[in-house]
Amino acid sequence: GANVAKQHAWVVTQIRELILNGALGSGERLAEAALAERLGVSPTPVRQALPLVAQEGLLAEAGARGFAGRE
């Protein structure tokens, strides 16, 4: 419910900030599991957040490999 939506919004914000602060390198492939561990959440909200951050132009789709920091 509301808790899941709050966590999802938090994860999107955290990923966005990591990219904008340069903590996630440009062209660097984003491993969902490692990113989830870094944020202290399960991989599911990370998996759901990555396409939204990509829509904002901050990530590039890396085909079957998932997402990477935009170069």
Overall, the morphology is: globular
| Computed Rg | 11 Å
Tell me about the largest β-sheet.
Answer: 3 strands, antiparallel
Cα end-to-end separation:
36 Å
This entry's quaternary arrangement is single chain
Structural class given helices, strands, pairing?
Answer: mainly alpha
Low-confidence stretches: none
Overall pLDDT metric: 88
Record the strand order, biggest sheet: 1-3-2
SS elements, strand count: 3
Percentage of β-strand residues: 5-15%
Describe the model:
With 71 residues, the protein is mainly α. Helices cover 56% and strands 11% of the residues. It has helices at 2-20, 32-39, 43-55; strands at residues 29-30, 59-61, 67-69. Strands 1-3-2 form a 3-stranded antiparallel beta sheet. α1 (2-20) crosses α3 and α2 (32-39) packs across α3. It is globular, with a radius of gyration of 11 Å. It starts with a helix and ends with a strand. 18% of the residues are buried.
Task: Looking at this protein, list some descriptive labels.
mainly alpha; 3 helices; 11% strand; globular
Question: Secondary-structure map with pairings?
Answer:
Layout: H1 2-20, E1 29-30, H2 32-39, H3 43-55, E2 59-61, E3 67-69
Antiparallel strand pairs: 1-3, 2-3
Helix pairs in contact: 1-3, 2-3
In short:
By secondary structure, the chain is mainly alpha-helical. Helix content is 56%, strand content 11%. Helix 1 crosses helix 3 and helix 2 (32-39) crosses helix 3 (43-55).
